[in-house]
TrEMBL record:
<dbReference type="GO" id="GO:0005267">
    <property type="term" value="F:potassium channel activity"/>
</dbReference>
<keyword id="KW-0406">Ion transport</keyword>
<keyword id="KW-0631">Potassium channel</keyword>
<feature type="transmembrane region" description="Helical">
    <location>
        <begin position="138"/>
        <end position="160"/>
    </location>
</feature>
<keyword id="KW-0812">Transmembrane</keyword>
<keyword id="KW-0633">Potassium transport</keyword>
<feature type="transmembrane region" description="Helical">
    <location>
        <begin position="180"/>
        <end position="198"/>
    </location>
</feature>
<keyword id="KW-0175">Coiled coil</keyword>
<dbReference type="InterPro" id="IPR010617">
    <property type="entry name" value="TMEM175-like"/>
</dbReference>
<dbReference type="GO" id="GO:0016020">
    <property type="term" value="C:membrane"/>
</dbReference>
<feature type="coiled-coil region">
    <location>
        <begin position="11"/>
        <end position="41"/>
    </location>
</feature>
<keyword id="KW-0407">Ion channel</keyword>
<dbReference type="GO" id="GO:0015252">
    <property type="term" value="F:proton channel activity"/>
</dbReference>
<protein>
    <submittedName>
        <fullName>DUF1211 domain-containing protein</fullName>
    </submittedName>
</protein>
<feature type="transmembrane region" description="Helical">
    <location>
        <begin position="74"/>
        <end position="93"/>
    </location>
</feature>
<keyword id="KW-1133">Transmembrane helix</keyword>
<keyword id="KW-0630">Potassium</keyword>
Length: 227
């Protein structure tokens, strides 16, 4: 039977070459063990960079008041910018706490959720520009939808990250699941109310969108409960 030329007979290699192959396999195995920790660092850096760019883009949308007649619009645009700024800052702070306290070895699923989260958050400059150009109920409602999607994705990142860290504790997994369901239910209810409110009173809805991240930042959830 003819020998398959694609198959290598490793017995033909010298002991030195075999040792090199073992070292390469060992290095690959070590790299695979460290890959989740490396992914964690890269995700944190990626989050920081994207959110910094988002805030920069938003502030560049503010047009200076060239005449006194435009000054009121100028102040209004600054107010809209500050609302979006605090929302993005609150998202950044929540993710910072998540990666600091319990997302130590993020999986590929968490990375994908993080990418979708950042993609959705990147729409905030568009929504903010829309509100600056036309402070209508429809514009604020769409702003609220983008905010709601980002919040859901943030909770999913926290949920899968915490569940992976506590995978050996059934009690902790139950606590995490109940906390996730409770937070998701409250978030969906409040944001649906805000979106409906924005259709009737856009200015009040924008004020409430500012209050939410400020309260979240000043009174954060205790992290000794994992989530």
């Amino acid at each position: 039977m003819p020998r398959n030329p694609r198959k290598h007979n490793f017995n033909q290699f010298s002991d030195q070459e075999k040792d090199k192959l073992k070292n390469v396999k060992k290095e690959l195995a070590e790299a695979q063990k460290k890959e989740p920790e490396s992914l964690r660092e890269h995700l944190q850096a990626f989050n920081d960079g994207v959110m910094a760019i988002i805030i920069t883009i938003i502030v560049l949308e503010i047009q200076p008041a060239l005449h006194e007649i435009h000054y009121q619009q100028f102040i209004s645009n600054i107010a809209v910018f500050l609302i979006t700024f605090f929302i993005v800052a609150d998202f950044w702070y929540d993710l910072h706490l998540s990666f600091s306290y319990y997302i130590f070895k993020p999986s590929k699923a968490i990375a994908i959720l993080d990418f979708f989260f950042l993609a959705d958050l990147s729409l905030l400059p568009v929504m903010t520009k829309w509100i600056m150009a036309e402070n209508s109920s429809f514009a604020v409602a769409n702003f609220g939808i983008v905010f709601l999607i980002a919040k859901i994705l943030e909770y999913l990142i926290q949920y899968f990250g915490a569940k992976n860290t506590a995978r050996y504790s059934q009690i902790m997994r139950i606590i995490i699941s109940r906390s996730f369901i409770r937070k998701m239910t409250v978030t969906l209810f409040l944001n649906v109310v805000l979106i409906i409110l924005s259709l009737f009173n856009a200015k009040l809805a924008m004020i409430l969108y500012l209050i939410v991240p400020v309260i979240s930042f000043l009174f954060p959830v205790k992290r000794n409960k994992i989530m």
